[in-house]
Design goal:
This protein is mainly alpha-helical. About 55% of the residues lie in helices and about 10% in strands. It has 12 helices and 3 strands, in the order αααααααααααββαβ. A 3-stranded mixed beta sheet has the order 1-2-3. Helix 6 packs across helix 8 and helix 10 packs antiparallel against helix 12.
């Protein structure tokens, strides 16, 4: 009723209250241009990950699988990589569910419902979670089949990286991925041949399957 009487030219609704808007007006131009989703993911991951450097290392490790990635997808992948290890303190049986809840219901701006669901499901997949719980099944409805598959691909690719390097960014740099036609190739420095365990090879196969590709592991000279 008041809006009809006042008839403003524009109405802006703040999801977080007027105080945030007042603080935003006082912020520098550089701060205003920052991506709130990436900022929150970085800070969240820094506080909860075993090795905060792993987020950037994982992005670099996965880059060959995403050569034609649009900027909108890259920012979601960056957020998912920064958040990839936030569940490590929880019991293995509950890591996927707890990590999913932390991401899906976090107070984050800069992402719509579908984007938030994508990141949450990619983080859940990193821990191998299924889609049997009510919250997970409900949020999957926010994603079309292709986006669900993309979240699964990203989750399984990061699962491969963590299987190889645990939470060591330095160790992850001793391996690299290549995408060749219909195959994903994992190349490992010969001095780290022992890292090509059965678990790593299995995770590589699972990752390639998600991309509908074959897989190969190779030692570099």
């Amino acid at each position: 009723r008041r809006l009809r009487r006042i008839r403003p030219a524009q109405v802006v609704v703040s999801a977080n209250g007027l105080r945030e808007g007042a603080m935003f007006e006082l912020a520098s131009q550089e701060t205003r241009l920052r991506d709130p989703l990436i900022d929150l993911a970085d800070r969240f991951g820094q506080n909860r990950a075993r090795a905060p450097a792993m987020g950037d290392a994982m992005m670099t490790f996965l880059d060959p699988l995403y050569a034609d990635e649009p900027p909108s997808d890259r920012r979601l992948r960056a957020a998912a990589c920064a958040l990839a290890d936030i569940g490590w303190r929880h019991h293995p049986d509950y890591r996927a569910e707890m990590a999913f809840d932390r991401v899906m219901f976090a107070a984050v701006s800069g992402a719509d419902h579908a984007e938030r669901a994508f990141v949450a499901h990619a983080v859940r997949q990193r821990y191998g979670g299924d889609a049997s719980t009510g919250d997970v099944k409900a949020t999957l409805q926010l994603l079309d089949p292709e986006r669900r598959a993309a979240a699964q691909r990203l989750g399984r690719a990061r699962r491969l990286g963590f299987a190889y390097a645990a939470s060591s960014a330095a160790l992850l740099k001793t391996a690299r991925l290549e995408r060749r036609d219909d195959a994903i190739l994992l190349r490992v420095e010969r001095d780290h041949a022992e890292m090509l365990s059965e678990t790593v090879r299995r995770r590589l196969e699972q990752c390639a399957k998600a991309f509908e590709m074959s897989s190969e592991a190779r030692l570099d000279a």
